[in-house]
């Protein structure tokens, strides 16, 4: 992330600290961001948020001023819980991307406000760091594979069920298929039902990633840099199986993008 988002060069001491929150479909991620540094990353699963207020207060008190509380959300109900917890503990207005802050990246979309903020934040963070055309693939509750042009414009992408979601669907919508934890297959032929499901889930995701990156490269006219994020990113690209197309795995990419959304308001 760029060093000094300001109207006149800021020193690191002057750059605001951001308690950045990524409110997703299965969890709230939050971390202390200061410039390029991301510290104290926390994950709280939805349904297990009883300690959220205390954790926000603890983190907020450790952060020096100036500081802001910023969130990107794709889950209105969880966002309400976060806002209530922040009001009780931090006593600082929660700046929500798309409501209180503009979207963090230019888009080539007819209705950018309808696109998941998490996708836009991850794309903004990737381009901010790379400065070149890139693909951001987020393997979380859902899988999104998005493309950013060489000019930093979000072009769009694709959405698929996440691996755990697909595993649950196979189990719940059939009479006999077991619920399987997705794992990286070290086999070619699944020798039983569990191996067949695990291999199918992971290899299908890897194949979809490759197909989409190749299609994006054709449209761009050159091969983009490919960045993975999300809870299953290492399962897809961390064992070398996709290393010929994946350049990096960045777990905190969306959190970085949430902070960027605020930092960019300081230079407008």
Structural features, described:
This protein has 268 residues and is an alpha/beta fold. It is 35% helix and 24% strand. It contains seven helices and eleven strands. The protein has helices at 52-62, 76-89, 117-130, 163-172, 193-220, 233-237, 253-263; strands at residues 17-23, 27-34, 37-45, 67-73, 94-96, 106-107, 134-139, 142-148, 153-161, 225-229, 248-249. The strands form two sheets. A six-stranded mixed beta sheet has the order 6-9-8-7-10-11, with helices on both faces. A five-stranded mixed beta sheet has the order 3-2-1-4-5, with helices on both faces. The longest helix is centred in the C-terminal third of the chain and has 28 residues, at 193-220. Mean pLDDT is 92; it is low at 1-7.
Mind sketching the topology for me?
Layout: E1 17-23, E2 27-34, E3 37-45, H1 52-62, E4 67-73, H2 76-89, E5 94-96, E6 106-107, H3 117-130, E7 134-139, E8 142-148, E9 153-161, H4 163-172, H5 193-220, E10 225-229, H6 233-237, E11 248-249, H7 253-263
Parallel strand pairs: 1-4, 4-5, 6-9, 7-10, 10-11
Antiparallel strand pairs: 1-2, 2-3, 7-8, 8-9
Helix pairs in contact: 1-2, 3-7
**Count of DSSP-assigned helices:** 7
* Series of secondary-structure elements, N-terminal to C-terminal: EEEHEHEEHEEEHHEHEH
- For the report, how would you describe the main beta sheet? 6 strands, mixed
Task: Report the β-strand fraction as a percent range.
Answer: 15-25%
Query: Structural class of the secondary elements?
Result: alpha/beta
Radius of gyration, in Å, reads: 19 Å
CATH topology of the largest domain: Nucleotidyltransferase, domain 5
CATH superfamily of the largest domain: ATPase, nucleotide binding domain
Please mark out the parts with pLDDT under 50 across 5 or more consecutive residues, or reply none: 1-7
Head-to-tail CA distance between termini: 17 Å
Average pLDDT value? Answer: 92
- This entry's quaternary arrangement is single chain
Largest beta sheet: strand ordering = 6-9-8-7-10-11
Number of strands: 11
Q: What is the CATH C-level name of the largest domain?
A: Alpha Beta
Query: Which architecture name of the largest domain does CATH use?
Result: 2-Layer Sandwich
Shape descriptor reads globular
């Amino acid at each position: 992330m760029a060093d000094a988002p300001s109207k006149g060069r800021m020193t690191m001491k002057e750059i605001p600290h951001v308690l950045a929150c990524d409110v997703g479909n299965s969890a709230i991620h939050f971390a202390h961001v200061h410039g390029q540094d991301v510290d104290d990353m926390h994950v709280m699963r939805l349904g297990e948020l009883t300690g959220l207020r205390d954790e926000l207060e603890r983190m907020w008190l450790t952060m020096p001023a100036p500081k802001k509380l910023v969130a990107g959300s794709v889950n209105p109900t969880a966002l309400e819980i976060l806002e209530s917890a922040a009001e009780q503990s931090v006593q600082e207005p929660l700046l929500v991307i798309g409501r209180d802050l503009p979207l963090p990246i230019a888009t080539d979309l007819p209705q950018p406000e309808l696109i998941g903020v998490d996708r836009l934040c991850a794309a903004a963070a990737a381009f901010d760091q790379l400065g070149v055309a890139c693909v951001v693939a987020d393997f979380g509750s859902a899988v999104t594979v998005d493309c950013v042009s060489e000019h930093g414009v979000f072009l769009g992408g694709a959405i698929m069920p996440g691996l755990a979601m697909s595993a649950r669907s196979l189990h719940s919508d059939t009479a006999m298929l077991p619920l399987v934890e997705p794992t990286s297959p070290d086999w070619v032929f699944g020798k039983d039902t569990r191996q067949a499901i695990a291999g199918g889930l992971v290899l299908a995701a890897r194949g979809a990633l490759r197909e989409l990156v190749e299609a994006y490269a054709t449209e761009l006219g050159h091969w983009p840099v490919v960045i993975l994020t999300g809870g299953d990113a290492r399962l897809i690209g961390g064992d070398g199986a996709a290393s010929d197309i994946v350049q990096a795995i960045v777990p905190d990419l969306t959190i970085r993008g949430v902070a960027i959304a605020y930092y960019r308001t300081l230079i407008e």
